[in-house]
């Protein structure tokens, strides 16, 4: 029997977990991730009001991967034949898949499931003890957090400071307007076009915005932009010439999910420079194509007919506003209410994500 090909997957988030799972029966798969678990991102804000959600939303990589080798470390560099990790391992590959996503500054990443559960409980204690809460950032993370707090603790006073001129800027103005109106009606103070510096001195109860507005709150949560973890890509022999100016990986224009000019290196998820908004459901679509294309290349290295991914040009998005409501931008229009909430807010796609990894939804 021919030897199994070696596939190294870097990053065990939305895309990497699917790629490793999809290929472990077809190749010798190694998943590299600094965390020993997959943190279903959609649940991160509900976890602040309901830490018990961790039981379903934090999935050990060893729970869904039955054959793949798991290396708990960070990829630090890659050559044309191997990946070197921060723990000093040299891991050879025939196919490399990069799924390192984006890092949110908050909540900070923890490397074990237990640490992450403790962090969730700590955030919950902070929230329970606070009568007033300041949310720094008015993107989907800040708005979803406000929705969760209003749903479970309607008596708490919430303020959102957003540097943009509208909330949830990744969606159209109609979604922003509906969302802002709803939040204000619930008593939330929304401050637009102003910001608060996120630094180590940030502490309750006094905060000052760039425009010198003084705010008081018993606690703050940071929901500001994303930071791409791409430094190592820029210094990696095989990848450094394939990093776009924004830190993402330049992808083959044909849509095969290969990194431009590299036959055996693929990428999926937020790290790709596909011209579309960065979302988990799209990361899942990239992952499915990567799985099929690597299977095809393994079966027929010289004349595989690869599948192609077409970036989506009709941005859809659902921002939940607690457990029942949501604002949704869909191809048929933008809505806010229970109908939109039915699509996401109750389970936050946790069951669906677990099932896609072969686990029980509940
Ligand atoms: C609160 C929240 C709610 C969201 N809601 C939605 C939603 O409703 N719908 C939707 O479609 N999208 C949503 N998103 C966006 C979605 O989560 C992301 O688009 C998706 O997670 C991207 O998947 P990814 O695999 O590219 O990256 P991630 O899921 O971020 O995974 C990246 C992985 O790479 C690992 N990693 C990073 N650097 C290295 C390294 N050097 N070596 C090894 N491993 C590394 C990380 O530890 C992590 O496990 C939401 C995001 C958040 C934070």
TrEMBL record:
Role played: Putative FAD-dependent oxidoreductase.
Give the similarity note: Belongs to the FAD-dependent oxidoreductase family.
Which species does the entry assign this protein to? Riccia sorocarpa
Xref: Pfam families? Pyr_redox_2 (PF07992)
Task: Please state what the protein is called.
Answer: FAD/NAD(P)-binding domain-containing protein
Recorded hits in Gene3D superfamilies, A to Z, give: 3.50.50.100
Q: Where is the FAD/NAD(P)-binding domain?
A: 6-283
- What are the UniProt keywords, alphabetically? FAD, Flavoprotein, Oxidoreductase
* SUPFAM superfamilies assigned: FAD/NAD(P)-binding domain
Q: GO MF terms on file?
A: oxidoreductase activity
Top-level taxon of origin: Eukaryota
Do you know which PANTHER family this protein is assigned to?
APOPTOSIS-INDUCING FACTOR 1, FERROPTOSIS SUPPRESSOR PROTEIN 1
Coiled-coil features, chain-numbered ranges: none
Q: Which InterPro entries match?
A: FAD/NAD-bd_sf, FAD/NAD-binding_dom
Keyword tRNA processing attributed: no
């Amino acid at each position: 029997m021919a030897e199994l090909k070696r596939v190294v997957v870097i990053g065990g988030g939305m895309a990497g977990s699917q790629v490793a799972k999809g290929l472990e029966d077809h190749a010798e798969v190694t998943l590299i991730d600094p965390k020993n678990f997959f943190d279903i991102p959609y649940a991160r804000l509900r976890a602040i009001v309901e830490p018990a959600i961790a039981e379903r939303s934090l999935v050990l990589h060893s729970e869904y991967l039955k054959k793949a080798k798991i290396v708990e470390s960070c990829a630090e560099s890659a050559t044309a034949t191997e990946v070197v990790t921060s723990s000093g391992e040299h891991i050879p590959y025939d196919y490399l898949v990069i799924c390192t996503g984006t890092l949110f500054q908050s909540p900070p990443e923890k490397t074990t499931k237990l640490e992450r559960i403790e962090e969730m409980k700590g955030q919950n204690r902070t929230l329970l003890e606070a009568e007033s809460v300041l949310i720094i950032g008015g993107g989907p993370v800040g708005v979803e957090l406000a929705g969760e707090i209003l749903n479970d603790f309607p008596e708490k006073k919430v303020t959102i400071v957003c540097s943009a001129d509208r909330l949830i800027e990744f969606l159209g103005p109609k979604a922003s307007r509906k969302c802002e109106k709803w939040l204000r009606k619930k008593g939330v103070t929304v401050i637009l076009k102003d910001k608060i510096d996120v630094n180590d001195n940030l502490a309750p109860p006094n905060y000052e915005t760039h425009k010198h507005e003084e705010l008081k709150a018993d606690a703050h949560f940071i929901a500001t932009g994303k930071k791409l973890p791409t430094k190592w890509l820029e210094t990696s022999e095989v990848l450094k010439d394939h990093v776009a100016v924004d830190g993402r990986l330049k992808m083959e224009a044909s849509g095969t999910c290969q990194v431009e000019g590299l036959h055996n290196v693929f990428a999926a998820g937020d790290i790709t420079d596909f011209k579309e908004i960065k979302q988990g459901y799209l990361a899942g679509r990239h992952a499915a194509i990567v799985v099929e294309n690597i299977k095809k290349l393994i079966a027929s290295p010289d004349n595989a007919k690869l599948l192609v991914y077409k970036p989506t040009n009709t941005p859809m998005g659902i921002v939940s506003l607690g457990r029942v409501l949501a604002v949704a931008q869909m191809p048929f229009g933008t809505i806010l209410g229970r109908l939109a909430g039915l699509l996401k807010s109750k389970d936050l796609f946790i069951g669906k994500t677990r099932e896609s990894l072969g686990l029980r939804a509940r």
